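[09:14] KT: can someone run the structure on this one? pasting the chain below
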Amino acid sequence: MALDFLTENAIIYVLIAWVVILIVAKSLKLEKHGFTIKAYSLTYKNNQVQSILSKMLTRTKRGIRVFADVSVVAGFLMMGFAFWFLISNISNFFVEPTEFAELTVLIPGVTLTSASAILYFLLSIPIVLVIHEGAHGIVASLEKIKIKTGGFAIFIALFAGFVEPDEKEFDNAKKISKLRVIGAGATANVIFAFALGAILLTNPLFAMVLPDPLLEWFYDEPDGVLILSIIEGSGAEKAGLQTDDVITGIEGVPIITPLDFQKVDLKPGETVTVTVNRDGQQLEFPVEIMPSPDDPDKGLVGIMRDNAFYKPVFNFIEWDPQVSMFLLWLWMISFFIGIINMLPLPILDGGKFIYSIIEKKASEAKINAIMFSIYGVTFAIFGLNIALSYMKSGWITI
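[09:31] RB: done, structure tokens below
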């Protein structure tokens, strides 16, 4: 009951936390230490970023040079992957609805409503931003573009990091230098996600996000979902399902892990065919779907199921559940911020990336017309993914 109250009022707790942050910032007089405090934001700027980055560069210059060159190629690849994913996802909505990936913008208190999800998000974002902006800054130093300031901003529950290059030096830099600087942030995020993912291959939860080819290599596939018990009086009991049956399909949709239940739209009162494996035999049962006690519009088969997932092939780490979830969030945010950030939109690196490629190729008016066209197409594709997700499930909360 207390957890339900916390979840339903998440936005209130986020606002209370913001008020506390403002009060603490004011009482500590953080304005004297580079902070700018407003009712809706807290911004920190540091003018010593350039010297810090220069020291880092002297120790790793050769490696940073390779990374900077890779960032240009990676920028194109990530932009292409982002478009491919979003367009193919739209196609899936109409052609293969079970494969459609629902998208939502993560906003603490609005789309993030569970206390644990908000905590994992708030812990992950600063790490991802430091990696992203640090990569921009150190590559800018490599290209001899001065960094005036660096820092971060908090807008109630949204985070942003930034490094501010000297505008004249950046504008006068070679095109390849600009592309290196712009692509570095997203590339750093994705490289970090790959490194973290290599560790998470020993974690059962990571199987939830791996595509099929990698899933088969690194995880042993379960046979289905084990029934631990049957709810008394449910359609499952009346149909003859039993404890220790293994559900392998519902209405022809393969059921491998508990997450696959989300692929089936179960409506209370309807009858569906449930396929189970019982003592080596495959059996089918017509099961009447019961309404959920928490949500009458949501349907349940009427069982208590085992929530076990795939078992890692390299199963040599004993994972703490909370550490697992935090690292999974960190991986997810780092990877998708990197990829989505390369979409050509005005506020993202992808927009700057494309502009740097085509600038000075035509008049400023023509360049602006081209950019607005690209922005419009990109926004339509991205927005359609969000809209279709809303049409399927309403506002998605985590």
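[09:33] KT: thanks! The chain has two domains: 46-212+320-393, 222-309.
[09:34] RB: yep, looked fine to me
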